[in-house]
């Protein structure tokens, strides 16, 4: 069953008032073609079975829903479960989307792929998918993120991708998106742009959500099987919003399930100190779609800060904006320090080193669990593993590796 | 213009690069050269359609705290200044700015500041219906862009909401100087001519008189952005005075003005 909340977007890419296409005319035809091709692929059994086969044998799906017994005891309260996206090939949820979009790239007869990356996870997942299918891959990455995510930069290059440093603006994710869009403007006939989150012009927010929905679908079935009921609360971190959208979407029509998105609270609520778009932003246009953004009163994008390169983004997907305004999903923020604490607790209690992005969701789940009844189940999307972050975490903790 | 048998020259400058006083001085200089229309770009933090030259100029202006209302104020006093007659002004502005400023407020203030039209590069024809009604109410033209990748049925829909002129993008890509204009441009202009009576202005990549010669008889006007905007970098060069930079921009504009006559 679909409802007014789950039956979105419409044909013009609207999630309520959000979404749509605010891009130069040069890209419009390609977006129309992509929408058509995607709709066809969705109906095409051979596309779906190829995708499912790759998700199973290459990505390693389904990944487990894991009961974190020690962390649950440590918090005292509700039962904490983790959806283990960190166990996917490449160690994050991003690969669900890149495999799907790489298959589409080939359907469209294109040989060149561009992508943008913050934490590098989407860059790695794009490089992997391109290597797997023999596509040329160029990844745009801010200079600041190249510094923070050296391991992933090396991995991308090993897999044959070209990493292009972006030196404009804040030298982070949003500037990488700008440069990727510009490349696409002049290469759109030969190139597909694999956007890494549920952002950008229609059909990207819908398409990326669909590819990521495998997370929530599996979680739903696993939860029913392992606990005999739907979860009480589902928690995921929100950068652009793809792991959370994939996790939440299959639960949207289950009114009993509380959904919580966790943004990067950074150093605090002042402008420039955080990346909590839904908590502090206002409606506006950024990177081709209409949704909540962090902007000044003239529409100039504000600087953002987060300890995690993957959450360091001043916008958010239009469907999250829609969920916020409809009240279906609650959004909150976790600070850098709280996330660091979540990271360390998770490592000690569960022997799992989480991505610093995911650590935001973990830190919030720990708060929620303390308040919850022991019969309640809280499912957290563990969006990625933390190998890429250990150097940065060590630096922040003042330790040497 | 076409009755005089020449093409219209429409230079583009960035507002507030490096400050609004300079913008005013350059506007006067361009007006004195007799240019037909001036496009004023509103600096935006995240431009997608612009190449590096124009992006850098936006960054210079924003680093110097450019604000939309200050531009409107400055233009208002300039248009009441009896000593200068400005050609029509067209704003090039991202929809991100218009929306946040408030569409009606933006349109009314733009109109009061002397703008006669707007180009909103990230508001494609499909999304422009509602906004084009608002621009009409504010007595502003909404110039629409057509790219070489726009198929004919899209073009037909787009030209219906357009007014002022049609901005024909010469290449699929971003703004920036290019050596040669693509050969397909001529056929593209010919087919556009069949679909609209509005004047056709070509932009993106144009920088020299030879480019203008290839457009003669096919387009009604041309827009030059990056080739002018790159000269603004010299304002922060201590080896040149402000007056020198402005007169060099003027010389370039005069040279392109002569090119309009062939
Ligand atoms: C592990 C991990 N989690 C979360 C994110 C945030 O992205 P999104 O909000 O699209 O899931 C990233 C982005 O790079 C990531 O690498």
Strand count, sense and closure of the main sheet of chain B?
8 strands, parallel, barrel
Using the alpha-carbon principal axes, give the shape of chain A.
globular
- The H/E string of chain B reads EHEHHEHHEHEHEHEHEHH
Strand content bin of chain B: 5-15%
**Contiguous runs where pLDDT drops below 50 for at least 5 residues of chain A:** none
Q: Into which percent range does the helicity of residues of chain A fall?
A: 40-55%
Chains forming the largest contact: A-B, 36 and 43 residues
In terms of structural class, how would the helical and strand content of chain A be classed?
Answer: alpha/beta
Fraction of helical residues of chain B: 40-55%
How many domain regions of chain A?
2
Q: In CATH's first tier, which class of the largest domain in chain A applies?
A: Alpha Beta
Can you give a write-up of this model?
The complex is a heterodimer of chains A (about 400) and B (about 260). With about 400 residues, chain A is of the alpha/beta class. Chain A has two domains: about 20-55 and about 95-205, 3-Layer(aba) Sandwich (Rossmann fold); about 55-90 and about 215-395, Rossmann fold (3-Layer(aba) Sandwich), CATH 3.40.50. Chain A contains 16 helices and 14 strands. In chain A, helix 2 (about 45-60) packs across helix 4 (about 95-105) and helix 10 crosses helix 11. In chain B, strands 1-2-3-4-5-6-7-8 form an eight-stranded parallel β-barrel, surrounded by seven helices. Chain B is globular and about 50 Å long. Chain B has about 260 residues and is an alpha/beta fold. Chain B starts with 7 loop residues before the first strand and ends with a helix. Chain B has eleven helices and eight strands. Bound molecules: pyridoxal-5'-phosphate (PLP). Pyridoxal-5'-phosphate (PLP) binds near residues 237, 243, 311, 383 and 384 of chain A. Pyridoxal-5'-phosphate binds near residues 92, 122, 197, 310 and 311 of chain A.
């Amino acid at each position: 069953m679909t409802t007014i909340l789950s039956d979105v977007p419409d044909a013009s890419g609207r999630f309520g008032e959000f979404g749509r296409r605010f891009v130069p005319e040069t890209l419009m035809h390609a977006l129309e073609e992509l929408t058509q091709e995607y709709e066809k692929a969705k109906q095409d059994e051979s596309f779906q079975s190829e995708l499912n086969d790759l998700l199973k044998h290459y990505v390693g799906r389904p990944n487990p829903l894991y009961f974190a017994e020690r962390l649950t005891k440590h918090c005292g309260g509700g039962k904490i479960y983790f959806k283990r996206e960190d166990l996917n090939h490449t160690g994050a949820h991003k690969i669900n989307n890149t495999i799907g979009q790489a298959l589409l790239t080939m359907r469209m007869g294109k040989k060149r792929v561009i992508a943008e990356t913050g934490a590098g996870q989407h860059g790695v997942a794009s490089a992997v998918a391109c290597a797997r299918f023999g596509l040329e891959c160029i990844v745009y990455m801010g200079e600041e993120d190249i510094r923070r995510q050296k391991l992933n930069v090396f991995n991308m290059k090993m897999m044959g991708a070209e990493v292009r440093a972006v030196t404009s603006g804040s030298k982070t994710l949003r500037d990488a998106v700008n440069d990727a869009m510009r490349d696409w403007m002049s290469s759109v006939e030969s190139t597909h742009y694999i956007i890494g989150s549920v952002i950008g012009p229609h059909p990207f927010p819908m398409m990326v959500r669909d590819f990521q929905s495998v997370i929530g679908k599996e979680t739903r079935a696993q939860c029913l099987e392992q606990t005999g009921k739907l979860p009480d609360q589902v928690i995921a971190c929100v950068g652009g919003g793809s792991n959370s959208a994939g996790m939440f979407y299959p639960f949207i029509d289950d009114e009993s399930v509380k959904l919580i998105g966790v943004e990067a609270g950074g150093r605090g609520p002042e402008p420039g100190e955080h990346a909590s778009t839904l908590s502090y932003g206002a409606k506006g246009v950024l990177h081709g779609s209409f949704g909540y953004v962090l902007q000044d009163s003239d529409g100039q994008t504000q600087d953002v800060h987060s300890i995690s390169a993957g959450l360091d983004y001043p916008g958010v997907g239009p469907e999250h904006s829609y969920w916020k305004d409809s009240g279906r999903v609650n959004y909150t923020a976790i600070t850098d320090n709280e996330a660091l604490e979540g990271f360390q607790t998770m490592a000690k209690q569960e022997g799992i080193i989480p991505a610093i992005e995911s650590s935001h969701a973990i830190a919030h789940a720990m708060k929620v669990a303390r308040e919850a009844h022991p019969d309640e189940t809280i499912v957290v999307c563990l969006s990625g593993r933390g190998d890429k972050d250990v150097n940065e975490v060590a630096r922040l903790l003042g330790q040497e590796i | 213009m076409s009755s005089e048998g020449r093409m219209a020259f429409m230079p583009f400058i960035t507002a507030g690069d490096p400050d609004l006083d300079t913008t005013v001085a350059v506007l006067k200089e361009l007006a004195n050269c007799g240019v037909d229309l001036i496009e004023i770009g509103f600096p935006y933090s995240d431009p997608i359609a612009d190449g590096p030259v124009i992006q850098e100029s936006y960054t210079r202006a924003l680093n110097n705290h450019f604000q939309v209302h200050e531009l409107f104020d400055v233009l208002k006093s300039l248009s009441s200044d009896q000593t200068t007659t400005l050609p029509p002004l067209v704003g090039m502005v991202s929809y991100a700015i218009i929306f946040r400023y408030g569409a009606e407020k933006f349109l009314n203030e733009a109109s009061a500041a002397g703008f006669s039209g707007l180009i909103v590069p990230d508001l494609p024809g499909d999304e422009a219906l509602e906004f084009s009604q608002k621009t009409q109410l504010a007595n502003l033209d909404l110039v629409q862009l057509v790219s070489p990748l726009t198929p004919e049925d899209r073009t037909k829909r787009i030209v219906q909401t357009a007014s002022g002129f049609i901005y024909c993008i010469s290449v699929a890509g971003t703004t920036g100087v290019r050596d040669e204009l693509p050969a397909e441009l001529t056929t593209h202009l010919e087919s556009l001519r069949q679909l609209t009576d509005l004047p056709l202005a070509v932009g993106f990549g144009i920088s020299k008189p030879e480019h203008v010669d290839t457009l003669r008889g096919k387009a009604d006007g041309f827009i030059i952005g990056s080739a002018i905007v790159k000269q603004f970098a010299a304002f922060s060069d201590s080896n040149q005075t402000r007056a020198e930079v402005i007169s060099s921009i003027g010389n370039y504009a005069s040279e392109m003005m002569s090119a309009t006559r062939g």
